[in-house]
Amino acid sequence: MISKCRWKLLAMLAFVLVVMVWYSISREDRYIELFYFPILEKKEPCLQGEAERKVSKLFGNYSQEQPIFLQLKDYFWVKTPSAYELPYGTKGSEDLLLRVLAITSYSIPESIQRLKCRRCVVVGNGHRLRNSLLGEAINKYDVVIRLNNAPVAGYEGDVGSKTTMRLFYPESAHFNPKVEDNPDTLLVLVAFKAMDFHWIESILSDKKRVRKGFWKQPPLIWDVNPKQIRILNPFFMEIAADKLLRLPMQQPHKIKQKPTTGLLAITLALHLCDLVHIAGFGYPDAQNKKESIHYYEQITIKSMAWSGHNVSRGPLAGQWTGLLNTQGDPERAGVIQKIITNRVEC
């Protein structure tokens, strides 16, 4: 009799254990789905023109007629020259820009143009991407935008392998496009100064290399197909600075407040796409000086403290943290967050 009771008790315990394990797994799956799992797995509807409608609430009188990339034809018989110098315009750099545009292109791939609704993701370089396993999800977007010299090779499981566009500037061009990008990736030059045009011209035309005028020496040899190069319209730098960060367009030379490449990429995405998500944005907490800033290297907040790209101090430190919280102007911050995504995946 005692033996039968023991068997019944063991059976009940086994049943309870199975139920607990099942419940635990289901909760874990739900956690992954809500906070970590690919957005597109949920088949979120893509509404044509949705980003444009939301952006208009933030930017006010905003036109999406502006071309994403600069075109040669726009600089012949110009009736309304640019009002600003680089990086917010092309004033004073027109002749140099003409030479660059003559050897580059401006088209957007037909595969993107024909989409009725464009799903886009801007992939940041943040440490939180490490071990995120977001690679498969990222690859499912129509447009994947990457930043600077962030590597893909060796990190595909976390950051994906698809790259539609990569924004860069000369000092950040220390990557091999044939290794880190796809054959049809658009390499989008963000020009901060006239020397950036000199550099890309010397690379593509094999002219005498430019060595001075950079805060970091750019590559002197860069194996790239000129057909992949695009020149970003400075309009997006102006919008990011003026409408999002509310920076003055005319600043003293000693003050160099400019939008980050990440903020610029998202501004571009809001112009091009109908649905925009972001992943891998944000810096470690300022108190956590030992955590890596990027997913691909061991540089920390502490080691960057006195570099030219200081992320721990200064008026623009934590641009995205400032934009995506509710301090200062809750209504505006809320609009910005909803425009980009209902949920930051990483």
UniProtKB/TrEMBL annotation:
Organism field: Sus scrofa
Keyword Disulfide bond: yes
Name the record gives this protein: CMP-N-acetylneuraminate-beta-galactosamide-alpha-2,3-sialyltransferase 4
Gene3D superfamilies found in the cross-reference section: Glycosyl transferase family 29
Gene Ontology CC annotations of this record: Golgi cisterna membrane; Golgi membrane
Transmembrane feature ranges: 7-25
Listed EC numbers: 2.4.3.2, 2.4.3.4, 2.4.3.6
GO molecular function term, any single one: beta-galactoside (CMP) alpha-2,3-sialyltransferase activity
Keywords: Disulfide bond, Glycoprotein, Glycosyltransferase, Golgi apparatus, Lipid metabolism, Membrane, Signal-anchor, Transferase, Transmembrane, Transmembrane helix
EC class of the enzyme, as a word: transferase
Catalytic reaction annotation: a ganglioside GT1c (d18:1(4E)) + CMP-N-acetyl-beta-neuraminate = a ganglioside GQ1c (d18:1(4E)) + CMP + H(+); a beta-D-galactosyl-(1->3)-N-acetyl-alpha-D-galactosaminyl derivative + CMP-N-acetyl-beta-neuraminate = an N-acetyl-alpha-neuraminyl-(2->3)-beta-D-galactosyl-(1->3)-N-acetyl-alpha-D-galactosaminyl derivative + CMP + H(+); a beta-D-galactosyl-(1->3)-N-acetyl-beta-D-galactosaminyl derivative + CMP-N-acetyl-beta-neuraminate = an N-acetyl-alpha-neuraminyl-(2->3)-beta-D-galactosyl-(1->3)-N-acetyl-beta-D-galactosaminyl derivative + CMP + H(+); a neolactoside nLc4Cer + CMP-N-acetyl-beta-neuraminate = a neolactoside IV(3)-alpha-NeuAc-nLc4Cer + CMP + H(+)
GO biological process: one example: lipid metabolic process
Subcellular location as annotated: Golgi apparatus membrane; Golgi apparatus, Golgi stack membrane
Membrane topology category: Single-pass type II membrane protein
Protein family according to the UniProt entry: Belongs to the glycosyltransferase 29 family.
Pathway: Protein modification; protein glycosylation
Main localization of the protein described in the UniProt heading: Golgi
